């Protein structure tokens, strides 16, 4: 016998059983009848709700520990089936014919994300990230590398931003997150962003790169968090990667700079962001909480896992060895990230970082690296809440 769970006014009264059927037990909160025969329904109906309010979806407070973060089967399948990105040469632009424009937001819905995911812009940007990974593969942070004048200028700019944190101490306040002094720091960044950008662009005096300032400054400004919300997350980190990608498109960062971009520039950027996070207590922006890799970062895990590929002694499970973390975290970015997580989070590692704990069970770093690259495409570049703030101009086209 079929049952109908739509509750009509007549269905609010307990019906009498028909002679042909034995009486069915009725729930205490609501009842329903079969529209075919008028008898009681054979299935227990759900609780009564107002006609205009659908039943709420049940969301557990704590998900069980699994090998992937809690997401829909389609999202998990998307990560598994997503192809591993491959390194690509950055397409260069001609300063003489290129028309720069102020980048704007373009992503507003899931259909926009799908269009973005299938675009050449994503392929080129991810190709740049993979090229950076390959440049640092099997190398330590301290290993010698080519350092162009542009790369040195970027490092000096980041060192200046670190110095500002010392000059703008946090104010005393009762709130745990979001120290208001961060807004003072960010205001100084906004005031001097164009001057800082000229320091980078003028490192190469062969060409006039000043027309590109209108397009570079917005990515640079969005790389260090949001002043209104006083937060920081993987979207801001992606903006820093986009800014470096734009410099590569202009020809200011070349292939021989890639190793230095990771071991000098990105390491210095990570130092700055950790200082901002600790001193100004930045709120995690769009954090997955206990189910994220980290409250703030993703790219250093990708670069760091590439460093450790084919290492003779250190395996993914080595993150649980405190001696290894103490002695090698200054040379390997992945270990540095793990050590920082253990520093700022209390309790058992498997409880506050279950995803990182699960990754430690992967047999080798090659699988870790390829899996993180696929996960970055789906969980960061494929999420509307993150990418709705991303900007598109002439260097990263919509």
UniProtKB/TrEMBL annotation:
Any one GO MF annotation of this record: peptidyl-prolyl cis-trans isomerase activity
Pfam hit, one: PTPA
PANTHER family the UniProt entry points to: SERINE/THREONINE-PROTEIN PHOSPHATASE 2A REGULATORY SUBUNIT B (PTHR10012), SERINE_THREONINE-PROTEIN PHOSPHATASE 2A ACTIVATOR (PTHR10012:SF0)
Record's signal peptide: none
Name of the protein described by the UniProt record: Serine/threonine-protein phosphatase 2A activator
Lineage, uppermost ranks: Eukaryota, Viridiplantae, Streptophyta, Embryophyta, Tracheophyta
Taxonomy, superkingdom: Eukaryota
A single BP term in Gene Ontology: mitotic spindle organization
Family note: Belongs to the PTPA-type PPIase family.
Skewed-composition ranges (Pro residues): 16-25
E.C. code: 5.2.1.8
Record field: catalytic activity: [protein]-peptidylproline (omega=180) = [protein]-peptidylproline (omega=0)
InterPro entries: Phstyr_phstse_ac, PTPA_C_lid, PTPA_sf
């Amino acid at each position: 016998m079929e049952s109908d769970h739509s509750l009509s006014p007549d269905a609010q009264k307990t019906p009498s059983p028909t002679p042909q059927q034995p009486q069915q037990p009725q729930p205490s909160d609501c009842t329903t009848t079969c529209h075919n025969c008028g008898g009681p329904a054979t299935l227990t109906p759900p609780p009564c709700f107002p006609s205009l309010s659908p039943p709420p979806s049940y969301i557990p407070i704590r998900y069980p520990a699994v090998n992937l973060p809690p997401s829909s089967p389609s999202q998990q399948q998307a990560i598994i089936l997503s192809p591993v990105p491959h390194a690509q040469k950055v397409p260069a632009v001609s300063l003489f014919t290129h028309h720069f424009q102020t980048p704007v937001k373009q992503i507003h819905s899931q259909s926009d994300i799908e269009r973005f995911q299938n675009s050449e812009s994503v392929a080129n940007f991810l190709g740049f990230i993979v090229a950076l990974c390959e440049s640092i593969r099997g190398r330590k942070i301290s290993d010698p590398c080519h350092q162009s004048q542009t790369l040195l200028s970027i490092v000096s700019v980041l060192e200046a931003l670190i110095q500002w944190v010392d000059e703008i101490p946090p104010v005393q306040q009762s709130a745990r997150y979001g120290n208001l002094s961060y807004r003072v720091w960010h205001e100084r960044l906004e005031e001097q962003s164009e001057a800082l950008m000229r320091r980078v662009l003028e490192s190469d005096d062969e060409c006039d790169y000043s027309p590109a300032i209108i397009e570079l400054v917005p990515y640079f400004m969005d790389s260090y968090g949001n002043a209104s919300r006083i937060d920081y997350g993987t979207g801001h980190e992606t903006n820093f990667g986009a800014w470096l990608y734009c410099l590569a498109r202009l020809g200011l960062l070349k292939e021989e700079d890639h190793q230095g971009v990771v071991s000098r520039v990105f390491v210095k950027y990570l130092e700055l962001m950790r200082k901002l996070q600790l001193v100004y207590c930045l709120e995690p922006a769009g954090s997955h909480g206990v189910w994220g890799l980290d409250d703030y970062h993703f790219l250093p895990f990708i670069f760091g896992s590439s460093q450790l590929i084919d290492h003779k002694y250190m395996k993914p499970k080595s993150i649980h060895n405190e001696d290894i973390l103490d002695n090698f975290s200054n040379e390997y970015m992945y270990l540095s990230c793990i050590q920082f997580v253990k520093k700022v989070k209390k309790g058992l590692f498997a409880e506050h970082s279950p995803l990182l704990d699960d990754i430690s069970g992967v047999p080798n770093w090659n699988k870790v690296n390829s899996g993180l690259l696929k996960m970055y495409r789906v969980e960061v570049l494929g999420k509307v809440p993150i990418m709705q703030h991303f900007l598109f101009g002439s260097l990263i086209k919509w």
